[in-house]
């Protein structure tokens, strides 16, 4: 049996850090409100000339170096992003060119904050069915570009960044199971409802969110999909060594861990330093916890996404 194994991870955060106090100097908010309601203390913001593919490139280089393989060995690139460089070509194709390779399949997936988990599930299928041997899966976002910096209800929540993993075909497990879901009837509670038409942006290019509705939805579906995923591989919740939910709000993360009976010290949280980086949040947190030595070979890690669409999903991985 062939599995897709994570053989390297990498991440990248833009150099510029914006603290809650920085924001409180410009809009009606406070460090106290942001920390209490979200757990966020700071976020990284890309320079005006940095795009998602630039961030993706740095994260990918880190993942390839960790895996000890060259870009020429990649035969599939999947980039999850809601903030692509262009309408087209895809950010994955731009990343491929920046990596200096050509020929392999490259495409973007759009599932907002669930994008990385969606991308990982797609790449896993390619590897398990023999269509790819080495896959690069990246979550990369410059969410700062689609925020209304005068809307305190959204702009304090997000940040920019990228995370990447290299998957390789192996007889040892690997990705054990993935479960993906969507419910488009909830599209309106988290959306950037604009498009480009006739040379203009039609509608709003900014993120709009019904925070409390998203909060309740997220806690419920993260609980459900974790149970579904462990059941799919014949395991129990107690078999999870590390829980890495999408990093949106520390209260969502802690509520999810509590409902699942995962001890707080087994929850990986980077939302305090990174804020919500949408599709980048899960691979960023995974890379942090691997590099600081918390996650080790043989550990089972539950990765979870939830976001606009509405979309949600989980992947259980044995490292
Ligand atoms: O990637 C997935 C997408 N995002 C999420 O998962 C986010 C999910 N939702 C949340 O994290 C929370 O709902 C928020 C952090 C967005 C908001 O927390 P909340 O506890 O649900 O607060 P709320 O929206 O009910 O707002 C409470 C109050 C309001 O004032 P009034 O109406 O009670 O006077 C807001 O106007 O807080 C006010 N408020 C703020 N005050 C200071 C909203 N944003 C801010 C702010 N600073 N930045």
Can you characterise this structure?
This protein has two domains: 3-171, Thiolase/Chalcone synthase (Peroxisomal Thiolase, Chain A, domain 1, 3-Layer(aba) Sandwich); 176-318, Peroxisomal Thiolase, Chain A, domain 1. Strands 1-7-6-4-5 form a five-stranded mixed sheet, sandwiched between helices. Strands 8-15-14-13 form a four-stranded mixed sheet, with helices on both faces. The chain has ten helices and 15 strands. It has helices at residues 20-24, 31-38, 52-67, 91-98, 115-128, 152-155, 211-232, 250-260, 271-274, 281-291; strands at 3-12, 16-19, 42-45, 76-80, 105-109, 134-142, 160-170, 175-182, 190-191, 194-197, 200-203, 208-209, 242-245, 300-307, 311-318. With 319 residues, the protein is α+β, with helices and mostly antiparallel strands. The mean pLDDT is 98. Helix 4 links the parallel strand 4 and strand 5 (105-109). The radius of gyration is 18 Å and the shape is globular. 32% of the residues lie in helices and 28% in strands. It binds oxa(dethia)-CoA. Oxa(dethia)-CoA is lined by residues 29, 33-34, 37-38, 113, 152-153, 156, 190, 211-212, 214-215, 218, 246, 248-249, 252, 276, 307.
Pick out its properties.
single chain, 319 residues, alpha+beta, Peroxisomal Thiolase, Chain A, domain 1, five-stranded mixed beta sheet, four-stranded mixed beta sheet, 32% helix, globular, binds oxa(dethia)-CoA
